[in-house]
Amino acid sequence: MCGIVGYTGSQAAQPILVEGLTRLEYRGYDSAGVAIQNGDGIDVVHRKGKVAELAHTLAHFDYEGTCGIGHTRWATHGKPSEANAHPHTSCAGDIAVVHNGIIENFMELREELEVRGHRFTSDTDTEVVAHLIEEAYRERAAAGAPDLLGAVADATARVVGAYGLAVICANEPGTIVVTRKDSPIVVGQGAHGGYVASDIIALIDATRDVVVLADGQFAKLRPESIAYFDEAGRSIEPTVTHVDWDLDMAEKGGYPDFMLKEIHEQPRVIRDTLAGRLVNGALTIDELDMTPEELDLIDRVYVIACGTSYHAGLIAKNLIEGWARIPTEVEVASEFRYRNPIITPSTLVVAVSQSGETADTLAAIRDARVKGAKVFGITNVVGSPVARESDGVIYTKANKEIAVASTKSFLGQVVSLTLLAMMLAQSQGKLRTAEVKLLFRELADTAEQVETILSNEAAIEAAAEACKDATSALFIGRGMGSAVSYEGALKLKEISYLHAEAYAAGEMKHGPIALLEEGFPVIAIATKSPVYDKVISNLQESRARGAMIVAIATEGDEDICNHADHVIHIPPVRDAFSAITASVPLQLFARAIALARGCDVDQPRNLAKSVTVE
Ligand code: AGP
Questions:
Q1: Residues classed as catalytic
Q2: Of ligand 1's atoms, which has the minimum distance to the CA of residue 409?
């Protein structure tokens, strides 16, 4: 996730900004930059790469300015590059902006601004904000009332999307204006001035009394004080929070580990991945870079991936075949690459990889392209090898995932694959616009449903407590629940080292049922679906042999309680989207058992975040 810092006070801003950016490095980034007022203008320095490289460059300038802003960028729009690094400036270079979030309507704003003569120097969505503020500031100045705070308010009123912003202006020395919508901004007054950051960890050396801005609020930082305003511009009294976290807790946003922090980031990942994808009723996946004619010709889809990403592919198969009626095969990349698959020019290969570096997946992409397939990547890392070697790519907008076990990046993959399935179905005339709009709205609602699940972990923790001493576990489901059960089993075994297997529930009587004995845990995805009754039968046959049943069930289903020892209710959702909601309790279940067994949930033994070897 990108990082924002800012300072205005009695000391030189440069070292304070660099230190703050250093504190934010753990969030993952690909470039960094600062903007520092210099008395009559603003000096801006960008560097692709690490903060240390930025600091090395800055050492040659050693700016003395006492007001500035800084940023670490995790690319979402526009590849990692010096030109795309923040801060971004107005045409005149007298206004500088750093931004976290996604401006959904940046293309239309950019077109308007270019028509009015603005010149852009980057491919980012952020840069439009700098030019919008420039226009608003000029208009206010022409009316005899130049005002950076008002100009920022005018500009953000035009923006659709999520933003955390910090802005400086050469004509208002010593002033930083900040505001936010769906992206955190924290401010605080220290002994030597005012501080702003996107994350408490960058502030707590200067002050532990901070104000977490609410959506729509503004703050105006001056060396000696900070003023707060509501979205109507009225002065307000801030709510000050005293933070007693240590650095480690602050790095995890107050969560005990990165895995839980990232599980709780999933509603935002859903929203960010969907941002800007439905324009005037039409799904837009420009990155697919395929003409309607080419889309119509697709008669076979391969989804290739490894591990958790492979399980996202299993979910995609249900959706693509269900909506688009295109035969879809899901294969682990390490098998696909060696079996000489049948590929024709009308084959679409979808490569899924959160790291974008997995060796087997990359090799499979190269093989598929040699055979003439169109390859579409889905990855979480802008500019990664998977992104570069695919014909088109969707970025999952999960920001950096630090825990080795994929959670938020997996959900980002599922949402992206759902969009792709809807797009294929729409292009082949299998989904009408009205149906796409309805599906998109329900897909967007899953963010709130995940928030509901995350707000009530008691049943999950009770089930985990009951299973933590087991030596093996079975995950079962049917249809979408079957795909979810594979991911649930992997999550459990990879972080708790408790052996777990997944089976299509209908397979139980073909062998796995022999495993069952008194107290053997069977975790079943038993949400309401066309095959719900069949799953209940599988629970009954398992329970008859002594199994302890943990069921993921749909809120309102009380009958399930007659067939399970532990029931985890989740909000009702269309079966097509049930993988998104049902996966979340299984992530928390695996984490709770791992903690109970004394495992490191962020860095499980033997595992790496990206597997760049065969
Ligand atoms: C993640 O929880 C798993 N540990 C692992 O299976 C992972 O999904 C797999 O290595 C693929 O990684 P990728 O998505 O970066 O290609």
A1: 2, 609
A2: 14
CA 103 / ligand 1 centre spacing (Å): 29
Scan for tokens 């698959």, then name that residue: 341
Q: How far from 81 is each of 51, 193, 594, CA to CA, in Å?
A: 14, 32, 39
Question: pTM for this one?
Answer: 0.84
Instruction: Give the pLDDT means over successive 10-residue stretches in the chain (614 positions).
Output: 92 97 87 94 95 95 95 84 94 97 93 97 95 98 97 97 96 97 94 95 92 96 97 94 81 90 96 89 79 88 97 98 97 92 93 92 93 92 87 88 94 97 92 94 97 95 97 97 98 97 95 94 97 96 96 97 97 97 98 97 83 72
- Whether 407 lines ligand 1, by a CB cut-off of 6 Å, is no
In the chain, DSSP finds a helix count (H) and a strand count (E) of 19, 26
Does the Cβ of 380 fall within 6 Å of ligand 1?
no
The pLDDT of residue 558 = 96
**DSSP tag of 224:** T
| 360 ligand 1 Cβ < 6 A | no
| CATH code for the part of the protein at 456-603 | 3.40.50.10490
Q: For the domain with range 3-243, which CATH number is right: 3.40.50.300, 1.20.120.80, 3.60.20.10, 3.40.50.2300?
A: 3.60.20.10
User: Could you tell me the sign of the dihedral formed by the alpha carbons of 392, 398, 402, 405, in that order?
Assistant: negative
Q: Compute, in angstroms, the gap from residue 211 CA to the centroid of ligand 1.
A: 38
| Ligand 1 contact, 361 CB (< 6 A) | yes
Atom 4, ligand 1: residue with shortest CA distance: 405
> Which among 614, 580, 601, 351 is positioned nearest to 494, based on CA atoms?
601
Query: Do the domains spanning 3-243 and 456-603 agree at the CATH topology level?
Result: no
CA-to-CA distance for 350 and 332, rounded, in angstroms?
12
Q: 548-554 and 566-570: which strand pairing?
A: parallel
**Architecture, CATH, for domain 256-454:** 3-Layer(aba) Sandwich (3.40)
Q: What residue ranges do the domains of the chain occupy?
A: 3-243, 256-454, 456-603
* Listed residue (368, 455, 381) closest to 413, CA to CA: 381
